[in-house]
Design goal:
Strand content: under 5%
Number of strands: 2
Largest sheet: 2 strands, antiparallel
Pfam families: ATP-synt_A
Number of domains: 1
Radius of gyration: 22 Å
Shape: globular
Subcellular location: Mitochondrion inner membrane
Number of helices: 8
InterPro entries: ATP_synth_F0_asu, ATP_synth_F0_asu_AS, ATP_synth_F0_asu_bact/mt, F0_ATP_A_sf
Distance between the termini: 51 Å
Strand order of the largest sheet: 1-2
Family: Belongs to the ATPase A chain family.
Transmembrane segments: 12-31, 69-89, 101-118, 138-159, 171-199, 205-223
Length: 227
């Protein structure tokens, strides 16, 4: 029973063929594609409004050179929301519960922001490692601490997304199992547990969207520091 709770996080395999690539590709099919018509349908109009509004709010504090990242970060947020939301459906797999995938997204993007800062403004980028007015005795210690915190950023991005989604999925499965076991024994308690499960599912829908937004928002803050 203990092992079965974690089976949902195993990478799906069919006839020895890993289906991770398929799980990452299918969400893009669900989005309506833009047309050349002057008037679009309601779904496409809502999608365009949402993407435009999100990009505007995300890049408002970022300098103009950083606006080149708008397409990349907006696409990444939509991609993460799709994977997180589809993972809440029954008999589906959530790729973003895999730490390897999240680190594969976090490390290159974080490294790109750091390299951009080192190329465009090396003095300011290195200045973040040592706050102004630091006492002389604390300079070596603060440089080490700030360097460690800099390299922890991509790890925090990947672990945060993985831990939140994994904890939510485990909690849903535990409560659903409890409701199924209690139904023939204590129907009233089972109904109350089912209501709790429904509320928790709504919470997980919000978490799925919020975590995707936080992932992209932190990347935009790292970009803002280096542009």
């Amino acid at each position: 029973m203990t092992l079965s709770f974690f089976d949902q996080f195993m990478s799906p395999v069919l006839l020895g063929i890993p289906l991770m690539a398929l799980a990452l590709t299918l969400p893009w099919i669900l989005f309506p594609t833009p047309t050349l018509r002057w008037l679009n349908n309601r779904l496409l109009t809502l999608q365009n409004w949402f993407l435009g509004r999100f990009a505007h709010e995300l890049f408002m504090p970022v300098n103009v050179p950083g606006h080149k990242w708008a397409l990349l970060l907006t696409s990444l947020m939509v991609f993460l929301i799709s994977l997180n939301m589809l993972g809440l459906l029954p008999y589906t797999f959530t790729p973003t519960t895999q730490l390897s995938l999240n680190m594969g997204l976090a490390v290159p993007l974080w490294l790109a922001t750091v390299l951009i800062g080192m190329r465009n403004q090396p003095t300011e980028s290195l200045g973040h490692l040592l706050p102004e007015g630091t006492p002389t005795l604390l300079i070596p210690v603060l440089i080490i601490i700030e360097t460690i915190s800099l390299f922890i950023r991509p790890l925090a991005l990947g672990v945060r997304l993985t831990a939140n989604l994994t904890a939510g999925h485990l909690l849903i499965q535990l409560i659903a199992t409890a409701a199924a076991v209690l139904l023939p024994l204590m129907p009233t308690v089972a109904i109350l547990t089912g209501i709790l499960l429904f509320l928790l599912t709504l919470l997980e829908v919000a978490v799925a969207m919020i975590q995707a937004y936080v992932f992209v928002l932190l990347l935009s803050l790292y970009l803002q520091e280096n542009v």
